[in-house]
Amino acid sequence: MEDAPREARRREREKRVISQMVCIFCAGNHDASARTETAFCGEQLCPACKELDEYAVERTQRCRKMGAKTSCEECGNHCYAPQMRERIRAVMRYAGPRMITRHPVAAVRHLLGK
């Protein structure tokens, strides 16, 4: 089933935000010379983070509750495998506070759930 226009915009925005967060994490934790891949958001990252980026973007694309959900943590349907959930939590803990300086508009929109 295809998304309504509003839901489709939100889904694309969510995919871009999670990808930006993975890139912030990668830039802060991995050597610049290792960042040979391109993320969904267009920034550079290492192969390990590229794997996580692809997984997170795919999970966001497949989310069945995009129109009604507030956050993945509050969702009753956990899409992420346990190992990947731990990896994305580490990314969010690191990148969340840094989003406001790197991508302020995206950070505020994400926090407001718009």
Automatic annotation (TrEMBL):
Pfam families for this protein: YgbA_NO (PF11756)
Stored NCBIfam families: PRK10410.1-2
Protein name per the record: Nitrous oxide-stimulated promoter family protein
